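Anyone opening a protein record will find just a pair of labelled lines. The record below illustrates this layout.
***
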Amino acid sequence: MNLFAFAGPATAAGGAVTQGAEAGGLAINFFWIAVASANFIVFAVILYLAFGKQVSGLLAARRERIEQGLRDADQAKRDRESAEQARVATLTEARRESNEILARAQKIAQETRDADIAATREELERMRVRATEEIGAEKQRALAELRGEVADLALQAASRVLHENMNDQRQRKLVEEFLADPTPGAN
């Protein structure tokens, strides 16, 4: 049995493939190939005339939708990239502003702290000066009081020692001499 021998309606009616007795292979019938090709071309022309414009229109519309979709996708990508750049720029600007605000706040806090320290030091210095003045005034008052008491005691002692009454003029002279001499009893 020959592997290239086909049985069927095409071979029974004298189709394109026939069994060659002497060749033992396939024989190609060009007539039927030309008829089949012509049928295909006529059928393709009829389909094109009947549906070609509609199919071309559908294909063109589909191609336009696809191209528009690609353009929209590219535009969306560019918009997304520009939005990302704007977001990054906004974040960078916000960070810069927050750093400036923080630096200003720290500077103001330091200046306020320094001003408070300076005011406290000035107040302490005023209090020290006032206390020194008060101490000096109190010392002067105490010395004056002490001098008065010493003068009274000295006058009393002198009047007892001398057994005479001293008058105001004489008393003043003695007290002034006594107080003026820084080293009493050194004479």
